[in-house]
Design a protein that fits this description.
about 475 residues, alpha+beta, 13 helices, elongated, disordered N terminus
């Protein structure tokens, strides 16, 4: 009887196997290779998308005083990107100090990449600085081991271990796949000139070039609205994620540690200088030469269902001109659906806040640039003050000559002691200073005009009379 049962069991196993591999059957997932394709490919078989791998290809750029230095920094930036994806944005932000001191070291980046797979997509040098963009495979096993060794966890880096797999990064658009010899590359499309900024007025080519330079070199400062009741930990996570976005996109930004250090050390100086007439964040933005400061407000909540944790977050970002505190647009994003974590509610909240911030910050930057560009075409507003203006006719001549070289000039007040103007100029405060010297040197009696002081967008001269 036992022999009959054994024989029937054998027939059943063979039948199941044949049904799995016959044309009408499907291949079980346990028989799939890590590439997402079956070990015995069939024309009808489709790859899993995206393909996850322990050695994904990542792309990054680096700069340095030498080509080798630029290459090392490019590899380091690859490691940073892979670490952030493996840990999740929130965990990477929360463990920033550990990562910077233990993992993000240019001299050790080679331990986490396969150098024999490196492809150089672009390289160059300018003014003694070198730059390079590469594609290279990441050794996720080595990277995950060192992350766990330093007790850095999150996303797919779990304390208990397990496979760590990521998909290849999308190849940069400027680096197309090689074209076969027989193929003819498509003719490049003619460049379409960018539309003028809304409300823009006519500008010379030189002024347009200056506007583009100013927009391209803006410095941003991100902080959270302390009066909004936002949880400080979540708020700082949002700031760290926003700064990461700025860093990845090559934009200048003020580090969170700098802001908090100044708040701690110079609170009395702030009160003495401003009398609290401006917010401390605007004051710090001016101290650190930021052009735009962004205030973040975070609203988040969490829930638990079984062993799954969910976090929802809405993030609001408001932009302000650092000199005038004038609004420069805003952005808002809410996580839909909620972020999921198998670790804790706190982790789910971090993931939700990080996701919402990362999605909102790009729009906020776009808004800030658009508003600033519009203002630049109309001319940046400056306060020009001249002390000792007893000769009213001479000061009238000064104003007429200045008018020919500015977008506009308006006299706000005048007295023998002081005359104040509001001027608009496409240029920096230093350009206005040079213009004042050029005009005053051509007017008898004002040749001795000199700078008294300058703060923000306000500049004061003594007429020398």
């Amino acid at each position: 009887m036992n022999r009959i049962k054994l024989f029937l069991s054998g027939i059943l196993v063979v039948a199941v196997f044949i049904s799995c591999v016959s044309p009408g059957g499907s291949i079980p997932t346990t028989m799939m290779s890590k590439s997402g394709m079956s070990d015995t490919p069939d024309k009808k078989e489709m790859p899993v998308n995206p393909v996850l791998s322990p050695t994904p290809v990542y792309y990054a750029s680096g700069t340095g005083s030498t080509q080798s230095g630029a290459l090392n920094n490019a590899k380091l930036n690859v490691v940073k990107k892979a670490s952030a994806d493996a840990l999740g944005i929130a965990s990477a932000a929360a463990n920033r100090d550990k990562l910077e001191s233990k993992i993000y070291i240019a001299s050790t980046a080679n331990a986490y990449v396969y150098n024999n797979t490196m492809e150089i997509l672009d390289k160059g040098s300018s003014d003694g600085n070198s730059s390079v963009t590469i594609g290279i495979k990441v050794n996720l096993e080595a990277l995950s081991n060192v992350l766990r060794a330093n007790e850095i966890y999150g996303n797919i880096i779990l304390p208990q271990g397990g496979d760590v797999l990521l998909a290849d990064m999308e190849r940069p658009s400027f680096a197309p796949e090689p074209v076969a010899v027989a193929d003819k590359p498509a003719a490049p499309k003619p460049a379409v000139p960018a539309p003028a900024a809304p409300g823009a007025v006519a500008a010379t080519p030189e002024e347009k070039a200056l506007i583009d330079e100013i927009i391209g070199n803006m410095t941003f400062m991100v902080y959270y609205d302390e009066d909004s009741g936002t949880d400080p930990f979540l708020a700082k996570t949002a700031v760290a994620v926003a700064n990461r976005y700025l860093s990845e996109n090559g934009m200048e930004y003020v580090d969170l540690d700098q802001i908090e250090q100044i708040k701690k050390d110079q609170a009395l100086a702030y009160e003495d200088e401003t009398g609290k007439s401006v917010s401390i964040i605007q004051w710090i933005a001016g101290k650190l030469n930021a052009d735009i400061y962004i205030e973040i407000v975070v609203d988040a909540n969490s829930s638990t269902k079984g062993r799954k944790y969910y976090g929802s977050a809405s993030v609001s970002l408001k932009n302000f001109d650092a000199s005038t505190a004038a609004g420069r647009g805003s952005s808002y994003y809410q996580t839909v659906p909620p972020a999921l974590s198998t670790v804790s509610e706190a982790d789910a909240l971090n993931n939700a806040v990080a996701s919402a911030t990362y999605n909102a910050i790009g729009k906020a930057i776009e808004q800030a640039r658009s508003y600033t560009r519009k203002e630049l075409y109309q001319g940046i507003k400056y306060d020009l003050i001249v002390q000792n203006t007893s000769d009213s006719r001479l000061m009238r001549s000064f104003m007429k000559k200045m008018e020919r070289k500015l977008k506009s000039i308006k006299r706000i007040s005048t007295s023998p002691e002081e005359t104040k103007y509001e001027v608009r100029l496409i240029g920096r405060i230093e350009d206005l200073e040079d213009l004042v010297y050029d005009v005053s040197e051509g007017l008898a009696g004002l040749e001795g005009m000199f700078l008294v002081f300058q703060r923000g967008n306000s500049i004061t001269f003594d007429s020398g009379l």
